[in-house]
Write a structure and sequence with these properties.
Distance between the termini of chain A: 17 Å
Strand content of chain A: 35-45%
Number of strands of chain A: 10
Mean pLDDT of chain B: 88
Largest interface: A-B, 46 and 35 residues
Protein name (chain A): Nitrite reductase small subunit NirD
Structural class of chain A: mainly beta
InterPro entries (chain A): Rieske-like_NirD, Rieske_2Fe-2S, Rieske_2Fe-2S_sf
Low-confidence stretches of chain A: none
Oligomer: heterodimer
Largest sheet of chain B: 5 strands, parallel
Helix content of chain B: 25-40%
Pathway (chain B): Nitrogen metabolism; nitrate reduction (assimilation)
Radius of gyration of chain A: 13 Å
Number of helices of chain B: 27
Mean pLDDT of chain A: 89
Shape of chain A: globular
Order of helices and strands of chain A: EEEEEEEEEEH
Helix content of chain A: under 10%
CATH superfamily of one domain in chain B: FAD/NAD(P)-binding domain
CATH class of one domain in chain B: Alpha Beta
Strand order of the largest sheet of chain B: 5-2-1-9-21
Protein name (chain B): Nitrite reductase large subunit NirB
Structural class of chain B: alpha/beta
Shape of chain B: elongated
Keywords (chain A): 2Fe-2S, Iron, Iron-sulfur, Metal-binding, Nitrate assimilation, Oxidoreductase
Distance between the termini of chain B: 97 Å
Strand order of the largest sheet of chain A: 2-3-4-8
Amino acid sequence: MTGEWLDIGWVDEIPVRGSRTVQVTGGDDIALFRTGEGKVFALLDRCPHKHGRLSQGIVHGGAVACPLHNWRISLTTGEALGGDKGCTPVIPVKITGGRVLICRTGALQAAA
Amino acid sequence: MTQPQEHLVVIGNGMAGCRAVEELIARDPARYRVTIFGAEPHVNYNRIMLSPVLAGEKTFEQIVINDAAWYADNGIELVSGDPVRAIDRAARTVTARSGRTVGYDRLLIATGSDPFIIPVPGKDLPGVISFRDMADVDHMLAAADAGGDAVVIGGGLLGLEAAHGLTLRGMKVTVIHLMPTLMERQLDEAAGWLLKQALEARGQTILTEAHTAGIVGDGRVEGVALKDGTVIPASLVVMAVGIRPSVALARDAGLAIGRGIKVDDHMVTSDPAILAVGECVEHDGNVYGLVAPLWDMCRALADGLVGRHSGYRGSVTSTKLKVAGLDVFSAGDFSGGDGAEDIVLRDASRGVYKRVVVRGDKVVGAVLYGDTTDGGWYFDLLKRGEDVAPIRDMLIFGQSFASGGGAADPKAAVAALSDTAEICGCNGVTKGQVVGCIAKGAHSLDAVRTTCKASASCGSCTGLVETLLALTLGDEVQAGPKTMCKCTSFGHDDVRREIVAQGMRSIPEVMQKLHWSTPDGCSSCRPALNYYLLCALPGDYKDDQQSRFVNERMHANIQKDGTYSVVPRMWGGLTSPRELRAIADVVEKFDAPMVKVTGGQRLDIFGIKKEDLPAVWADLNAAGMVSGHAYGKSLRTVKTCVGSEWCRFGTQDSTGLGVKIERMTWGSWMPHKFKIAVSGCPRNCAEATIKDFGVVCVDSGYELHVGGNGGIKVRATDFLCKVATEAEAMHHCAAFIQLYREQARYLERTAPWIERVGVAYIRERIADDAEGRDALAERFLFSQRFMQDDPWAARAGGEEREQHAPMAVFTPLDNVREMA
């Protein structure tokens, strides 16, 4: 996998209002989310609170609820919503011809 | 003898025109035959809710005020998509674009406002739009789908709403505002500044004191040029700089025009046969761009039409708004000036700002930002011109503090409101009107919504209406159940009832029909709705995996490090060498760091990785074991003691009965986790009296207990009844579970449920009513026909394999670290 954008797979492989992960050797996984509106986002798979796997949470609107303590994390900004404070790195994503691409440098920075 | 009906023709199918007709029908439905002309190809909708439609919080259907049936039921002819082009006052006819000409006895002009388009070069380029009707919203949605940059010209309410919607839709938005602060007509400088900060934090670019020089583009909009030479790229430009009364039609017809169509106190224009109402009129030198005055006008107008002539005296207005989700309120005059004194509370870190302007011990203006709870109270003080000297030192802290010395009792606050205080801003309903309609028999939120419309639009005043219900009806009404979550104004019980009553079949359908305020709910309502539908439609409903908590999606318990624990079912707590061997093998093969006996007499294998789960299940399945559902809102375990087979005190075969009960009940989904135990004698070694359903065997039969909880708040069971045979014990158990499944709220265990409904009710339904009990048990057993499938077997067989595997693997990180 080289180049600035990494090809991850088909958009359809991510369930609507669900997620899939990208395993990063030597680092934290990256979670890819697909919202009800069909948009795709990527976050480090690690809640800023107690490192819960965000990929296992319930996706609603533009946010995901962490499965451990129900923190809501914005898929757009990675920020904890509501009264909580904290931020999870966001990895730039784009969709080209139905394929999901994530930004290589973004992924490296986030997972390092 | 009936008189021939007079013909009332209404030009304008908007909020004012239709409201006027509604008011008229409420007074005398037979007096006029009504024809309504509308320029847009729609039924009557709530224009102020266009912003939520743009933001994706509502659909068009959800903002319809009067659907086609309303027109039909009231004999109103709707001519939509065909704007009126001319009025012939001499002939008393109107002619529409299509050439259709209709005669009138009375004509009502309710043409509203037109968006103001600033006359700059390029204003007519494709891609430059206003934000006024459904067509504009459709236009913006299409632009947002294509992505890119948007520029909104105008930092007033409308512009900011458009900017917010477009931001949510993924566009990069710049707001251009001519004035130094946003919403300067509603907010003072400080509040405007806070608003700007909040919007910038959401990624919008806000340019104040920015003058638009022109719109650039070759055949289509490409950007906005400012006077300082900056060009901001944009594929969409929304002009939202203001509105002006739509008077062209009236002017052409020769009616008297000022800033709007001139009307008297009865909304009659300079032609006695022609009335006008809404944003298009000028009354006593004033034009209004808000909803509340419009309702006042419509009431006066309808009174006049039926000969009651009450008269309109103008309106004092306040503005309570949610701008891009931020609460904003203003009322009266906050410009300061002679004799005006400011009382200000500022808490920047909480994002709260309050300013009350007092002149001669009277409130003359108020601006609230971030917390607008007391807006209605300040407005009420202002309208009544009350002397605030006695409460001046507490005024800024709000009503509950000023009237109760710090005890924040929301009920007292609502009770203290005057009858003219506005409760529902969307529909212009006062406290007096709500109380009146409750007194006339509207004893529920729904009834209030249908009779006086309070809380029927955006729902933000639902709490106030509920408090008024409680205050008016006293003990007759229990404090209404809390809403399911912030996505809806309905409580759990209402939702369950409506699902069954309306035969709803899917989560999106529930959200649509019950006016959910979010596009796809949240992590609390979705699992609840999924359960309610599953319970209501056994065998038919298609489970929504994405609405299940991770444990139920992965069929294992997530632990704090992201690994899972796995509990195979051991019927009644019994096991065998083969099962023990299989468990031991799994522990070794998958390096599980711990295995432990659970409180429910099962073995729990910890530390299994998500990707290994299918293989673990395959191995356990191979030894004949199935999922113990230790992760689910479902039947967990049936704990037993050894009973008569080995114990010297045992009276009955408690182990055998436990196994039978577990065989009957496993796999059933419930509102919460559910535990059962069977003890062989009153020594109760299986601790049956702290279980959701407990059986204590005695010499003469079986004592049944319900509603025990060993959790945070320990609760011993209530005695349900005593039965003579195993079969009866099982039958009662099935009926009780079904009653709980059908009636408890999601995430409500049996203990709080029973405390809520009373144990007498449970006895009545289960112990005393044999027929009802049979029906409940039958429904339970029917639903179990579809539930008793081992979820592990399907997954081990490869179903939804992708849930356990990463989509891709990315490996260069170690190299990068070396280089760095």
